[in-house]
Each structure stands twice: as structure tokens, then as C-alpha cells.
Amino acid sequence: MKTGKLAHKFRVDNGKHFRLKDYDPAETGHWKSKEHAAEMLLEQVSRTADLQDKLYAQDEWALLLIFQAMDAAGKDGAIKHVMTGVNPQGCEVTSFKTPSARELQHDFLWRTTLQLPERGHIGIFNRSYYEEVLVVRVHKEALNNEKIPSSLMSKKIWDERFEDICCFERHMARSGTVIRKFFLYVSKKEQKKRFLERLDEPEKNWKFSAGDVHERAGWDDYQDAYEDMIRNTSTKHAPWYVVPADNKWFTRLVISTVIVDTLESLKLRYPKVDGAKRKELEGAKQGLLQEK
Ligand code: ATP
Ligand code: MG
Known about the structure:
This protein is 49% helix and 12% strand. It has twelve helices and six strands. Adenosine-5'-triphosphate is lined by residues 71, 75-76, 96-99, 126-127, 131-132, 135-136, 142.
């Protein structure tokens, strides 16, 4: 399968008929094993590095990558992988946890807006404003903490949030921030296996928190919320990718491919040197060569 096809396969840019059950968390395309995919993964990492160099030099576009998933779906590992070979000077990762008291004093897009990537940079959101239609929807008490005036708390609040998010993303796209959103789709069975590993292996114990099991209890509500989110916020300029996540190596392969494809579609180029600049460079070169 060509890389372009692989990226396209999991892309949702019109969510109207989206159903989670049309996707299989265990899918690995025609790749049979980690070893089989290793060479391609390496190639993607080096292409990402080259493209990022141009993105930075050109200083016009920004790339925002958003990661959402159930616990233990492999967000952290996938982000670590994306970062391999990338110049840290042009890339920022931000993790969003339960909002602080200060953050709750503002609208729900405030804290993430402060962390958006500047031109030439790649920004990675480990969780994002999408938590506002996921955890906040599943746990209604989180919505009550947000101090929204009661007259604005209508039954349509989730549709209103979808609409606000879409408008915000369209605005960002029109300003030159390219947005790609990844839902790492792990199965309930695989999550259980990974939780048990976290409990059994001492070096993985730190990754486990009792709250994770509590969230697992709301599995079906979360799946419904994810489905509705993807249905309502998939657009051409900010598509979702439903990435199979039961095999970590395949997750990484799909994500890398999407990033390479996206950056290539921007036709990035190093800034052109004009006549005056060329003269300046030539002068500097002569100066250096004539140094004693
Ligand atoms: P992760 O679970 O992302 O790997 P972590 O385990 O280090 O990270 P947690 O303490 O689990 O960190 O923090 C993430 C938690 O914060 C998640 O349960 C998430 O649902 C919650 N959270 C994130 N954004 C919001 C939000 N806007 N409102 C309420 N809860 C949120
Ligand atoms: Mg957690």
C-alpha cells in the first residue's frame, strides 16, 4: 500500500455517516509485523525531519497535531515517536490535564489557545479542548465546575461546543495553522491487557492510576462521546484520523505517514535569496576567505 493511501484510509473529513464500528482497532493494513514496518517507519522519521527544517525556515505555516484517546492507547509513545529526529527548537508538546482554578476562570478554548504553535513550528497537544466534549460530557459534574451562567447551560451545549470548535479550527486554518487530529482507537480487551502489564511490571507501575479503572467503567459512554465528536468535528481543513491502536507499531506508522503527507502537501521551500542578500553573502564569503 502506498503511504498516501495509508494516510487516507483512516481519514474522516466528513463525519456525517461516521460510525466507530466500521473501524477495527486491531487492523494493521497489509503490514504483518513490527519488523515488516520498521524500514518504512525509519524513512518517515527522516522525511519528517527534512520537512520540518523547511517548515521552520519558511516561517509561514504552523502544524498542530492533536492526540485524543482512552487511557493506555499509546498517546505518549506515539508522541515520543513523532518527536524522534525532529528539531526540538521548532516543536512544542503540551499536555492538558484537569483544568486549574485559573483556567476555569476562562472560556474552554482559552488555555489551549495560549499554547498554539507559532509560524514555522509544530505544536503537539496531548489531550486538548476536545476533552470538553469527552470527559466533561461523560462526567457532568465537570461541566458544573466550569461556572457557566445557568441561563447559557442549554441542552444544546454539546452541539454548541462542536460548532464553536469547528469555527475556531476554520479560523486557525485560514490563518495558516494546519490541523490534524488523531483518535487512537484501542479495544477494551487491549486496554485491559495494558493495565495488567502496568500493574504487574514494576517499571510500568508509575503509569497506572486507580482513576484509570474508574474511567474504564464508563467505556461505552466514552465510545459514544468519541463517535459523536468525530461525526461533528471532522472537516476538510481539520480532519480526524481514526488510528487503529491495538498494535503500537502500526499506530506510529499511520501517524508518521499522515504527518509526512501533510507537510509534503504544503509544498514547503526554503526562502529565496534575492539579489541584495546574495551580494551580502558573497561579501561575507570574500571577507572570510581573505582573513589572515
Ligand atoms: P494521560 O492520562 O493523558 O496519559 P496522565 O495520566 O499523566 O496523562 P492524568 O492525571 O490522567 O494525567 O490527566 C489527564 C486527565 O485530565 C484525564 O483524565 C482527562 O480526562 C482530564 N482532563 C483533561 N482536560 C480536561 C478538561 N478540560 N476538563 C476535565 N478534565 C480534563
Ligand atoms: Mg491518565
